[in-house]
Amino acid sequence: MTINNILWFRHGLRLHDNPSLLEALKSDCQSSNEPVKLFPVFIFDGESAGTRVVGYNRMKFLLESLADLDRQFRELGGQLLVFRGDSETVLRRLFEELNIKKLCFEQDCEPIWRERDERVTKLCETMDVKCVENVSHTLWNPNEVIQTNGDIPPLTYQMFLHTVDIIGEPPRPVGAPDFEFIEFGRIPAILASELKLYQQQHMPGPEEFGLTYDGNADIAFQKWIGGETRALESLGARLKQEEEAFREGYYLPTQAKPEILGPATSMSAALRFGCLSVRMFYWCVHDLFAKVQASSQFKCPIGQHITGQLIWREYFYTMSVRNPHYGEMDRNPICLNIPWYEPVDDSLVRWKEGRTGFPLIDAAMRQLLAEGWLHHILRNITATFLTRGGLWISWEAGLQHFLKYLLDADWSVCAGNWMWVSSSAFERLLDSSKCTCPVALAYRLDPTGDYVKRYVPELVNYPAHLVHEPWKATKEEQLEYGCTIGQQYPAPMVDLNVVAKRNAHAMSKLREELINNGGSTPPHCRPSDIDEIRQFFWLADDVVPEA
């Protein structure tokens, strides 16, 4: 007799550093050597892996990740069992028909998954199935961080760092699974039909979920491929980049020296779907840093700064874990209720489609639709333009757009970034008079104009000194360059000087009201120091955030 166990994939789409997989391979029988039969399962339930709000590119990345898992299991003699339906219903039928003894899965710590997991946990109790949840999507257990901080979320990043320092270093990756004595389960044909099991090696395409490609394929230069195999290959290239930076005396190379033209070495999409273990990435970078320090003259204190972006990811997870309204404004206890404009014209649509008349903004928004990815700095400037730096439209509208189209769209991290950029949270109380100008940033970030010309081909003939401000070209020059402003490419939709003064006044007025109201101000998350703000927004050296 075999012990039948299910490994339920949601995120964590990998075999390496997968404690839930190791748990599913255990029989838990102390008195016998009964073999384990493994049923690796993924369920398209309209929620798992962020499929409630999803666009074509992100669904394609997810499907590629599942296909990669399936290929690996087939090489071992099994397959990834992909179903479509309600998770509780599918699991109940599998429990009933397959005599399942144990269900194992990786923790989805965000509150948006809580109702699903509570239903499944209760189902396991009812049907006498052992339920094992493991923490491996995050470096630390967010609930443990909050408990260590006196059972309250840490309101500053420094407070978070202090708390995790008390907990200690994150666990190292677990060992590789041993499949030598493992059988893989099969689903009876009648049950497979009932539960809509995808048969053979057929993995559905995004079109089967009613999704269509919204971008311009002609400008989709960056090709992102999902799956553990590709993620581990990309990790090698990223570590080489990290090592070069360490040897030159700096860290966070993708932030310190942003390469918006690529090829991108970001691991964010692989981390978001768990194709790459965050613990593996973290420890690879830290071990590499220690190795470089030991063999070079570059010396600086080793700490969390060298993996700062991963630590911010942890911080945003922690701030969201007990806050089901974290992704909205009105009911969010840490979010300031800023009276944003309700757009009555096509302003929001023009921002989404990359038709604002500001080339850097438009290039970024078109890249998002075409490829599903943006550099961190481009995310910040497009978000600033939508909110406090330009159109004064709520960050909630921007969040929904990014959640749909970003490959690495992660509810906690994405919402956290939007709240910070819009001065709604994670920022000193509306003290945000310094907004990065999209034109000034364009000249710093894209001095040759090559990025803009790649994604806004209307401006391909404009010279570098005009491509970021094409409205300054004379009528004769515009005709010569083959793009007339207001016809082939839109004129700027707002006057930046006018909206900057208007928005600064609105922020100042709201800040004064909040201070005068005293106790009505929410427990406001805020940055720890000016350097934190400078790094996050990639501010120029001569731009000093006001105290």
Automatic annotation (TrEMBL):
<keyword id="KW-0600">Photoreceptor protein</keyword>
<dbReference type="GO" id="GO:0003677">
    <property type="term" value="F:DNA binding"/>
</dbReference>
<dbReference type="InterPro" id="IPR018394">
    <property type="entry name" value="DNA_photolyase_1_CS_C"/>
</dbReference>
<dbReference type="Pfam" id="PF03441">
    <property type="entry name" value="FAD_binding_7"/>
</dbReference>
<keyword id="KW-0678">Repressor</keyword>
<dbReference type="GO" id="GO:0006139">
    <property type="term" value="P:nucleobase-containing compound metabolic process"/>
</dbReference>
<protein>
    <recommendedName>
        <fullName>Cryptochrome-1</fullName>
    </recommendedName>
</protein>
<feature type="site" description="Electron transfer via tryptophanyl radical">
    <location>
        <position position="418"/>
    </location>
</feature>
<feature type="domain" description="Photolyase/cryptochrome alpha/beta">
    <location>
        <begin position="3"/>
        <end position="139"/>
    </location>
</feature>
<keyword id="KW-0963">Cytoplasm</keyword>
<keyword id="KW-0675">Receptor</keyword>
<dbReference type="InterPro" id="IPR036155">
    <property type="entry name" value="Crypto/Photolyase_N_sf"/>
</dbReference>
<keyword id="KW-0805">Transcription regulation</keyword>
<dbReference type="GO" id="GO:0005634">
    <property type="term" value="C:nucleus"/>
</dbReference>
<dbReference type="InterPro" id="IPR002081">
    <property type="entry name" value="Cryptochrome/DNA_photolyase_1"/>
</dbReference>
<dbReference type="InterPro" id="IPR005101">
    <property type="entry name" value="Cryptochr/Photolyase_FAD-bd"/>
</dbReference>
<keyword id="KW-0285">Flavoprotein</keyword>
<keyword id="KW-0716">Sensory transduction</keyword>
<dbReference type="GO" id="GO:0009881">
    <property type="term" value="F:photoreceptor activity"/>
</dbReference>
<dbReference type="GO" id="GO:0016829">
    <property type="term" value="F:lyase activity"/>
</dbReference>
<feature type="site" description="Electron transfer via tryptophanyl radical">
    <location>
        <position position="340"/>
    </location>
</feature>
<feature type="binding site">
    <location>
        <begin position="309"/>
        <end position="316"/>
    </location>
    <ligand>
        <name>FAD</name>
    </ligand>
</feature>
<dbReference type="GO" id="GO:0032922">
    <property type="term" value="P:circadian regulation of gene expression"/>
</dbReference>
<dbReference type="GO" id="GO:0048471">
    <property type="term" value="C:perinuclear region of cytoplasm"/>
</dbReference>
<dbReference type="GO" id="GO:0045892">
    <property type="term" value="P:negative regulation of DNA-templated transcription"/>
</dbReference>
<keyword id="KW-0804">Transcription</keyword>
<keyword id="KW-0157">Chromophore</keyword>
<comment type="similarity">
    <text>Belongs to the DNA photolyase class-1 family.</text>
</comment>
<dbReference type="InterPro" id="IPR006050">
    <property type="entry name" value="DNA_photolyase_N"/>
</dbReference>
<keyword id="KW-0274">FAD</keyword>
<dbReference type="GO" id="GO:0043153">
    <property type="term" value="P:entrainment of circadian clock by photoperiod"/>
</dbReference>
<keyword id="KW-0456">Lyase</keyword>
<dbReference type="InterPro" id="IPR036134">
    <property type="entry name" value="Crypto/Photolyase_FAD-like_sf"/>
</dbReference>
<dbReference type="Pfam" id="PF00875">
    <property type="entry name" value="DNA_photolyase"/>
</dbReference>
<feature type="site" description="Electron transfer via tryptophanyl radical">
    <location>
        <position position="395"/>
    </location>
</feature>
<keyword id="KW-0090">Biological rhythms</keyword>
<feature type="binding site">
    <location>
        <begin position="408"/>
        <end position="410"/>
    </location>
    <ligand>
        <name>FAD</name>
    </ligand>
</feature>
<dbReference type="InterPro" id="IPR014729">
    <property type="entry name" value="Rossmann-like_a/b/a_fold"/>
</dbReference>
<keyword id="KW-0539">Nucleus</keyword>
<dbReference type="GO" id="GO:0071949">
    <property type="term" value="F:FAD binding"/>
</dbReference>
<keyword id="KW-0547">Nucleotide-binding</keyword>
<dbReference type="GO" id="GO:0006950">
    <property type="term" value="P:response to stress"/>
</dbReference>
